[in-house]
Amino acid sequence: MNNMGKEGNSTSSLKAYVQAYFSDLDHSKKAEKIHVELNQLKELVNISVAQVGSGDPSQSDRATQESLQQAVKYLSKETLEFLAGLDEKVTTEGILTSIEEFNAIYENKEKFVNVTLTSAVSLSEDQKLRILKKFQTKVGEATIFVKEKVDPDVVGGVRLESENHYFDNTIVTKLKEMKKHIIQD
To answer: CA quadruple 41, 43, 48, 54: dihedral positive or negative?
Structure first.
């Protein structure tokens, strides 16, 4: 019974880690790359486990570790960072669970929006959340990947840029608009 509780906590912490990692990604191309590579890794792990058979779980974990060591040289930096965040003691089952959780999150998202958030200074988490909440109303139910950019030339305010949306509320832009109106009059 106690073992079941540990396994449940382990699975919960793996799922929480995957959720947090996915949320911290700043571009949909990274998510796509990790998704593809994790699926390839899953196939490799499944082959290793099948070759060992259903005998000793530690033997299965050893075979998985050997497969992972071989695969590491072919994985992207993003996928390696994802795997590095897993607990060292995670079992083959845990690795597969984390891959399946990442895939579930990725596959349940129908639309991805990459946005660059530019400001004169670094924004607090609260400020970013308020800005992105308003931007979310423009893009609907999409998953937003945010790349932050600090550019002192904007002086103040923020600029949001994505493939289909552009919102510029920077002081520099407002000054340029004012100058244009003064020259026209």
So the answer is: positive
- Taking alpha carbons only, the member of 146, 156, 145 closest to residue 121 is 156
Beta strands in the chain (DSSP E): 112-119, 143-150, 157-161, 166-170
| Helix, strand, coil percent values for the chain (each to nearest 5) | 65, 15, 20
Give 21's contacts (C-beta < 8 A, 6+ positions apart). Answer: 82, 85, 102
Backbone angles phi, psi at 143, to 5 degrees: -85, 125
Closest CA to 79 of 16, 7, 30: 30
Q: What is the DSSP letter of 13?
A: H
Strands 166-170 and 112-119: unpaired
Q: Angle CA(97)–CA(70)–CA(10) in degrees, nearest 5?
A: 20
Record the tokens describing residue 82, joined without a space.
Answer: 């994802």
Amino acid at 162: S
pLDDT in tens, 54-75: 556 667 667 777 777 777 788 8
> Whose structure tokens read 């911290």?
24
Give the Cα-Cα-Cα angle 80, 16, 34 (nearest 5 degrees).
30
Global pTM?
Answer: 0.64
